[in-house]
Amino acid sequence: MKSSLEHACKFLLLIAIAIVGFQIQPTLFPDKVESNKGIPAPHTEPETKTEIVEETPNSKIRPHGMASKADLPELPEIEPEPKKPDTAHKPKKISPLDSAILTLVGKDALSTTEIKKDAELIERACYYGEWDKYRAMLARSLTEAFKKSESRLGRSGNNNRYDNLWREPRYYTALLRWKMLNTFPDKVTQQTKTLPGSTAMMKWILANDSALEEIALTIHQNDNKDEVFKFLSKVWTNKKFTYKEEEFNQGDQNDIEKIVPKYFNLALACAVVFDKKVAYKNPTSESSFVDPMFRYHWYRKKSEGGLLEGDIHKASAKDLTFVVCSPVSTEELEWALRKYRSARRKNIGKAFSDVEYLMERAVNGLNPYEEYTLPEILDKGGICGDQTYFCVNVARAAGIPAFGLSGITNSGGHAWASVKIDDDEWSTQIGRIGGVSKGKGNDPQTGEHITEQEVWHWSEPKVASRTNTIKIFRHLWLADFFTESYDTLQNNEAVKIAHNIGQEFPITWNRAYQVMLTQEELIASPALPDTLKVWKDFVKALKHEFRKNPRMASLAATIEDKHIFPHSDIADVRRELARLRRRNTRNASEQADLMTSSLRREAELILQTSEDDHEQALEEIHNLYTRALRDYGGSISGFKEMISYYFSLMKDDETRAKPAVRTIELAFNRVVDTGSDDWFRKKTEVGIHRQIAKMYREVGEEKRATNMEKRLDRDMKNAKRKAL
After folding, report:
1. Can you give the residue range of the structural domain that contains 371?
2. Where are the alpha helices (DSSP H) in 305-356?
3. Which residues on adjacent β-strands are paired with residue 415?
4. Is residue 516 within 8 Å of residue 506, measured between CB atoms?
5. Is the domain of 217 the same as that of 279?
6. Is residue 328 part of a domain?
7. In this predicted structure, what is the pLDDT of residue 504?
8. Closest by alpha carbon to 165, among 464, 503, 477, 467?
9. What is the mean pLDDT of residues 563-584?
10. How many domains does the chain have?
11. How much of the chain is helix, strand and coil, in % rounded to 5?
12. pLDDT tens-digit profile of 273-327?
């Protein structure tokens, strides 16, 4: 009986186990779910980022005991978290330049630690091209050093105010570095990452104050900074250079440490002149353009061989721009150097007169040249332009700065040479004749005009002094830094000192004027007597400083027109302009264009202040020019400018047009017409007379104009016959 009961219990237990197994079968046997269509699929847990299951070989098998879907509560779906970028292994790069500050003043500034830190920061900037960060670091360091030194500054307004700063060598070097890096755009200096030679070049420049000063004094805002940087870097690569089968070897490490730095100013001059292509004057040359690297090497080789008259390794980069720029072939430079090697620097102007004057070229426009080379010009002769070209390039071949000038003289157009005949002296007397007005040449670096009066200014002792120039410009560079750091007070102080100690420099007057424009009391109430007095005193001092060279005081006219004349009595203004003309006639008699511009300013003032009585204004202008043509008409260029403007005002007035032309003709007969048979003077006088004939035609005097022109044609034929 007991045995039967035990069997029955076992049987029932097996049935129960079978029922339970049947209930959980989809979980235990997922591969057979499809065959059990009547049984719902079990619920699966959503995976989240917070649950991490260690994967094992059997991790895909779920444990026993999972409940059925019917037994589990409904759970909301959980959106998966968005994937975040993996930054764990990519930390943000932090440059030491972002927070570094150099100690620039005091004993610690020269410590081994600071010197080492400085070198490491420069190395970092070179390697990564982080010059923008390096410049910002310099700005922080300069600002911090200035704060520390502020208590040791001199009294405000004292010219020695910043002397304690200048006694801190590390401070001055940092200021120069900041100025240099402001000169080159960041995208240019960043090339130290990849450009051969650039790192060595930058390290050397940053360690040499004289090189930094030279860059600040030489590079112009319009220079191609990228080309300049690349050229200097190429110089520092120290590689062999071959041109037309001639090899130039910069040599070993000794050269990169001595020779290359020795000729840095030469390299800088070549860099700024040849940042654009310079074509040969001679169109038959093998190459259309001068090779800048070869030109640098040629001058360096000749200098090392002691073959140049000028000491180019001692000359400034700006002076050397007037040496390297010759638009001639190397063969011509070689010829000129051999031909004039024995000529002393002061006597190099003899080359001008060595070219025989060719009258047929002047009169008939004869072109005797096949190639227009220097030997050919000497052989066949030429006119003043050819003589100037020859002399200037002969001087340059010898390493002497030179360029050509041209202008209007009392005998017509003329060209002559400007040559630096000594270390501190420029001469514009080579080939020059009297009666010149507004002579000018071209800057080989910028292409801008250079007036003859600027050249005279370069030879002023204080302007020619390198020491004095640096003394002034370091204050202007300091002012530039204060401007960027928004320290208006210190900017004004630095400019004021530069102006006080450098009144021979027009730039200091311009900078002082810019400071005055920021002073509200001088702008808000321009008509107040006290305000006018400030402007008048400034202009008076400016004119007095440049009384012997009034063109350098051109800023005075700008200030008068903007800040003085509009608020002054017209009679007082006219008296002042008349006094200025008389003074300029005494001190600068050949600068006739200054007289004509003064007359024009006075005429415009008369028109502005007599708007209600135009007839009266024209009468006053007529009287003004009638006197002026008599007083200042002796200058050909001045006469031509005066009659052009005077006639332009009168020609549309029916009652004044013809009398105005008659006044001009009478003045011409009285002060211009000499009756000379000299070809050049006659040509000039006939040219002005033709201008008067054209005026007669414009006012309706056709017959008179025609008869005058016929007479002038006969005069020119006679003059040409006599000239030849």
Report:
1. 195-459
2. 317-324, 330-339, 350-354
3. 406
4. no
5. yes
6. yes
7. 97
8. 477
9. 91
10. 2
11. 60, 5, 35
12. 999 999 988 765 556 899 999 999 999 999 999 999 878 999 999 999 999 999 9
